[in-house]
Amino acid sequence: MRSPPRRVPEIQSRAHPLVMGCALAALVAIAPGCAQVTGRADVVIGTASPVDIDYPLGGSICRLFNFDTPRHGLRCAEVASAGPAANLESLRSGRIDIGIVPSDVLADAVAGEGRYAPWGPAVDLRVLFAGHADIFTLVARQGSGVRTLADLRGKRVSIGSPGSRARAGMDRVMAALGLARADFAELRELSSAEQNRAFCANQLDAIIYSVGHPNGLIRDATLTCRGRLVAVTGPAIDRMLSEYTQFERAVIPGGTYPVNPADVPTFGVRAVVVTTARMPDTVAYEITRAAFDRFGDFRRLHPAFEALSVAVMVRSAGRAPVHAGAARYYREHGWLP
Question: Structure pTM?
Answer without folding.
Answer: 0.77
